[in-house]
Design a protein that fits this description.
By secondary structure, the chain is of the alpha/beta class. The chain is built from 22 helices and 20 strands. The longest helix has 18 residues, at 180-197.
């Protein structure tokens, strides 16, 4: 069975969510932390909870407002024959229009037959599971045995129970019909007999205490039929199905490492389930090295009988999956949206390659599209500078820096991320108007995308060496001189076309020299990688305290960017 539509109301961090799922087997939920990705998985698990004793409390309600009932509706297709019977749920069947992602109350030709399961939890904390449709809004109970048949399993941080034969676990479903209760009752009786066999040695002190208790009983007139002795009480030590667990030799597999346990559970969930399964895998990367993540995801991709819902914060997972497997979760004031990552704009811009090279951006809430590595490094350094002043870092605001890899790629990337629901800002040079023009700027700003381009058609390096105090200009040149592959003096001398002392410290400020240094820095790639861009800001950090510098183009635009990061 497979989920086709999911609706959630008033559950934990979700006030409302409506998600029509495309026809697919893998749904990897990504996005900023606290966007309710794990809550979506929990809602699905609760809708098909295989036991009757679902434990709930007031904190499960959105903002703890228990007067607003929790309602989870899941429409499932690819149904088992048993569910189609008129004696079962045949009167509640509905239709699913996969092409348009719509639910139709009456099944019809060309539509997939589905059932809608509704879980309702009111302030009495008593869960009610119903199969519903518009024709029969009161519904009919969706029984525990039928919830179990859907085979929904959650693999989370605490899944040791899944390695036992407890009710509803994958192992229990793998086990052929057998009276486990009788088997375990016999085990309890065997333990009683074994303990009695060596009573003189093993229970000597316990029987002595029992004899004293017998004397007290007689004194108080309590009848003694035979003789008091220590023995196992079968009711107290009654073994239950959940106590039968998977072992490797004598070692219970619950003692495996977290990653190994989760990989094993994923495999067990698949094996032997003829009707398929729905596996929920929260934070799939936990406890796993990159090579084992790769192996696990191959297992997931190869399983054509299961539907998988994954969550992740790992760039490694994103690189292993395809863009078609990824779904971005956004949450604003309790309204949660799930957006597929394969939007037209991003696909047109080689989405798969961008996910693999810049996976961090897809795991954020805000994206700054930078023209190149220099801008990324420069902004990282500026982030450190702001943190040094006591401000919250970019990461606190859910912001990621994305290297577009050239001016010609900025517009498409910014539009695509905006389409995917991210807040987007652009930082670009002003010297490549053919690739990123003022018309492009205006078009992006019309789509609520902030754009920061250095004035006078200058690159970052050229603009910086026009704006910086002279002491910071010299500090920048000296920083470039620490890179062995750079011939900094020769670079500047070739642009300056005048006599120039070899000692940078003796250079005298002039408009011509500033211009020459800027052209040399740009043309000879002084800061054309993230690390050097970052170090550059560290070198010029004192300039930001200069009141004259604060009025110049670069600090003004950086201040606007910081305000955007803090408040958008």
């Amino acid at each position: 069975m497979r989920i086709r539509k999911l609706s959630i109301r008033n559950f934990r961090g979700i006030k409302e969510l409506d998600w029509s799922l495309p026809t697919a087997d893998i749904f990897c939920l990504i996005g900023k932390g606290d966007s309710s990705k794990s809550t979506i998985l929990e809602a699905v698990r609760y809708a098909f909870f295989p036991q009757w004793n679902l434990t709930l409390n007031d904190s499960d309600f959105y903002q703890c407002k228990v007067e607003n009932a929790i309602v989870v509706e899941v429409s499932i297709g690819d149904l088992v024959e048993d569910f189609l019977s008129l004696n079962k749920y045949g009167q509640y069947l509905r239709g699913w229009d996969a092409k348009n992602g719509k639910l139709v109350d009456e099944p019809d030709d060309g539509l997939e037959i589905v059932l809608t399961i509704r879980l309702t939890i009111a302030k009495d904390l008593e869960p009610k599971w119903l199969v519903v449709c518009d024709r029969h809004p009161d519904g009919v109970p969706f029984k525990q045995a039928d919830r179990n048949k859907v085979s929904v399993g959650l693999i989370g941080a605490y899944s040791e129970r899944q390695l036992s034969w407890a009710t509803g676990t994958a192992l229990a479903k793998l086990t052929e019909a057998q009276s486990l209760n009788e088997l375990l009752a016999n085990a309890s009786r065997t333990a009683r007999t074994s303990l009695d066999a060596d009573r003189p040695n093993t229970l000597k002190n316990f029987d002595a205490a029992a004899a004293k208790s017998q004397e007290v009983a007689k004194l108080l007139g309590v009848p003694v039929a035979q003789a008091y002795k220590a023995h196992l009480d079968l009711n107290s030590v009654n073994l239950k199905v959940g106590g039968l667990a998977l072992h490797d030799g004598d070692i219970p597999l619950r003692q495996l490492g977290l990653g190994s346990r989760r990989m094993l559970l994923c495999g067990i969930q698949k094996v032997g389930l003829e009707e398929g399964h729905i596996t929920l895998f929260d934070e799939i990367e936990f406890g796993l090295e990159p090579h084992r993540i790769s192996r696990l995801l191959k297992h997931v991709r190869d399983d054509k009988r299961g539907q998988y819902f994954l969550t992740t914060h790992s760039p490694v997972v994103l690189r292993e999956l395809t863009v078609n497997d990824l779904y971005i979760v956004h949450s604003k004031a309790g309204t949660v949206r799930v957006i597929p990552a394969y939007c037209d704009g991003l696909v047109a811009h080689e989405a798969q390659g961008k996910i693999r090279s810049s996976a961090d951006a897809f795991l954020s809430r805000k994206v700054v599209v930078c023209e190149g590595a220099t801008e990324v490094g420069f902004l990282r350094g500026y982030d450190d500078y702001q943190v040094g002043k006591g401000n919250d870092p970019f990461s606190y605001h859910g912001l990621a820096l994305l290297n577009a890899g050239g001016a010609s790629k900025i517009k498409a990337l910014a539009e695509a991320f905006k389409l995917l629901g991210y807040e987007v800002c652009v930082v670009a040079d002003g010297d490549a108007e053919k690739q990123f023009s003022p018309a492009h700027e205006a078009e992006l700003e019309g789509k609520d995308i902030a754009v920061h381009v250095w004035t006078e058609k200058l690159s970052l390096e050229e603009r910086a060496f026009q704006d910086l105090p002279w002491a910071s200009v010299i500090a920048s040149v000296k920083l470039a001189q620490t890179v062995p592959s750079l011939t900094v003096y020769d670079n500047v001398r070739s642009k300056y076309q005048k006599e120039l002392d070899q000692d940078v410290g003796t250079w005298v400020e002039s408009a011509e020299l500033r211009l020459a240094i800027g052209k040399a820095a740009k043309g000879c790639d002084w800061f054309k990688d993230i690390t050097r861009g970052d170090l550059w800001v560290q070198a010029i950090g004192p300039a930001f305290a200069d009141p004259d510098f604060s009025k110049k183009d670069i600090p003004t635009k950086l201040a606007k960017l910081w305000t955007w990061a803090e408040h958008v």
